Amino acid sequence: MNAPIVIVGGGLGGLACATLLARQGHQVHLFERASHVGGRAVTQVREGFHLNLGPHALYAGGRGIGVLRALGVPIKGRAPLGSGGVAVRGGTLHGLPSGFVSLLTTSLFTLAEKLEAARFLANAQSIDVAPLRDTPLRTWVESRFAHRRARDFMYSIFRVASYCNEPDRQSAGAAISQFTRAAKGGVLYLDGGWQSLVGGLAEAAGRAGVVIRTHASVASVLHDAQARGVVLESGEQVDASAVILAVSPRFASAIAPRISALRAWADAAVPVRAACLDVALETLPSQTTFALGIDVPSYVSVHSAVASLAPRCGAMVHVARYLAEGETATAAELASDLERIQPGYRRFVRHERFLPNLMVANDFAEAGRATPGPEVPGVRGLYVVGDWASSEGMLADASLASAKRVSELASRHALAGHATDETRTQSENIDGTHDGARRGFAHEAARA
Ligand SMILES: Cc1cc2nc3c(=O)[nH]c(=O)nc-3n(C[C@H](O)[C@H](O)[C@H](O)COP(=O)(O)OP(=O)(O)OC[C@H]3O[C@@H](n4cnc5c(N)ncnc54)[C@H](O)[C@@H]3O)c2cc1C
């Protein structure tokens, strides 16, 4: 019998890839080092408040939702209203432009700045992004927008769509694609948080027959020019017909240190990070539910205004600062971002969690740098899955898109290996028969 396909990592990407492969008839073993699956998509529940790990929104027009639906994962949630939000510039609140009427009426811009932003919003969907793949976002913005405040507005909308705050390095083509995808399809805040996706995927994996082992940290990958298996930290060795690394580039390289491609990807990766303040409130002091920083990389959103995430009258609020490489933000800064739109909120806090340095994505589409994976050069049957391993969207979309692609490649690889093994067994049988016949002839000759 063929050795199983081994998946390292039980986040959304690993779970989806495992399920897709098991549905094609493969035996799949998934190893997760934590006590539970879900990775960064887990949600904590405290007194009826559902706390995602920082603000999470599913791109309704992205690649991920298609993969989840195909796997039968229930997706329940709603899109936040575009209108009624505020833009923060110089510490002052202005109407957030979310359409042409709010753009025309906002106090954020002068008329000339409004016209510049309006021209972009009207034409964004038809911009040819392919020639802009290798252009840094800042180069593109500075060449297209004459007004400082229109430029700042552009950076803020690309930040909120991609979480990335690296305009000097981010690919303009990738940033514009992500913005237009988000603007066209919208996003969903999910009832019960992203744990609903984790639960749905884990159930689908169970139904498909995936063997999931938690508390099972993989220490190394066994390979020559072909992936052969993994060794767990416990010392247990598991043979594999293919190995899929659904972990960060740093972990992937750490467990397969002799593979130069993995080392190069880990060295080049620039993580997308955020400081997050997740706040559960007994009640909301004010009606404003969304604020976007224009000259400061801040985000505040009351996710429970849209999705079922809090008990009656309560509110689940996510506050974030998008961090550039080497940057930090303090709990006090994030608290003051929230205080600005929800004055006096501290009186109503039930739970509060400050996470100063979350890894939102392991890497981003950098101008002039190729996207890693999904095949690992030099080792057949070894693949990578994750938000760093696909150019089909960003964040969870990239992770799920890479899971889908790798499930196709690994399936083909495992079947080809199986066919080779069968051919070898058959030819061994034929040889054995011939040998037997030869031996038979030899016995006959000896008797004669
Ligand atoms: C603050 C924040 C906000 C976000 N907002 C959004 C959003 O709005 N929209 C969106 O689409 N995405 C968002 N994301 C990103 C999204 O959460 C991730 O892209 C997605 O969950 C990644 O899933 P994954 O399976 O690729 O990786 P992970 O979730 O990181 O899973 C990797 C798993 O591998 C396990 N592992 C690691 N090493 C080993 C080992 N040696 N052996 C066994 N197991 C191992 C880990 O424990 C982990 O469970 C956000 C993330 C954060 C942190």
Structure description:
The protein is an alpha/beta fold and 448 residues long. The chain folds into three domains: 5-42 and 194-269 and 366-412, FAD/NAD(P)-binding domain; 94-188, Orthogonal Bundle (Guanine Nucleotide Dissociation Inhibitor, domain 1); 271-361, Alpha-Beta Plaits. It has helices at residues 12-23, 63-70, 100-105, 111-123, 137-144, 148-162, 172-185, 195-208, 249-255, 260-268, 331-341, 395-447; strands at residues 5-8, 28-31, 43-46, 49-52, 58-59, 77-78, 86-89, 92-95, 187-190, 211-213, 218-223, 227-232, 237-239, 242-245, 272-281, 290-293, 298-302, 315-323, 349-361, 382-384. The strands form five sheets. A seven-stranded mixed β-sheet has the order 8-7-16-17-18-15-19, sandwiched between helices. Strands 10-2-1-14-20 form a five-stranded parallel β-sheet, with helices on one face. Strands 5-9-6 form a three-stranded antiparallel β-sheet. Helix 1 packs across helix 12 (395-447). The longest helix has 53 residues, at 395-447. 51% of the residues are buried. Bound molecules: flavin-adenine dinucleotide. Flavin-adenine dinucleotide binds next to helix 1, helix 9, strand 15, strand 19 and helix 12.
